[in-house]
Amino acid sequence: MDRNSVDWSGPMPAVTTPFDAQGQVDRAGFRANIARLLDEGATGIVACGCTGEFWSLSLAERKALYADAVAGAAGRGTVIVGTGCVGAADTIELAQAAKAAGADGILVLPPYFVKLTDDEIHAHYAAVSAASPLPIVVYNIPGNAVNAISPALASRLAELEKVVAIKESSGDWNNFYATLLAVKDRIRVFCGPSSVFGVPAIHAGADGTVDCFPNVWRGTLDLWYAARDPARLSEAEALQATARKLTDLFVTGGRTLYPATKAAMDHLGFPGGGTPRMPLQKLTGEPLEGLKRGLAELGVR
Hints:
The protein has twelve helices and eight strands. The chain is α/β, with parallel strands linked by helices.
């Protein structure tokens, strides 16, 4: 397999996993959010990733959400689901469940918490690649996973049989661009923080974007289409500027990204928000009120 084995491209939002006040998965809200995003221009979705609070889900919950993701998409877009675990055996078990549910591919981050060498990370992906029934999107998010995928390591991983893409979410333009240059002829490259530098990433040749902000603001979907149209360059730049401000809003003033995303969804009346799972806390008080003011100032309604 390689980049030509799949046709994945365009804006594919990383979707939230909504929980009710008792901490149970709101499966109907999850499916409704996916349908809304596809209606608004998404070419697919990524479920059970970092935005989806995968680390708080049991294996059984993740497997159930794979089926809900496929049902929510209803054949209208690509469905990629996160199967990353610390161990290869659990990652493979979830990959098999994803295949049974009808997903198109799996998102696999490196083993997390324990610091690994590049050879150890490669060995993990090699084991998953050998047993996975689905193509793999490598997930570089060192801020969460501890272990980083450098451009050199990405190049090695691109040679594994089932690896067809990478989601580069380091937030470091130099790492993103060097990775793009190293692997774009062999695997597809998706820009994670498109709210930060999506337009230059698209102009450099990114195959698509995977970001949490489409859950809140359609502009981060429109950004993909505007950036690819020479006649809409000024519009693309304006969307990028707003997206950058939105990013800053969600991670300042006592706010962190995922609770702020859910709070904004609830405030705007979108399905798929709800209560984050502990240790994350629902926004209240001034952090919530400041979020609402910021959204209004940015014209996000």
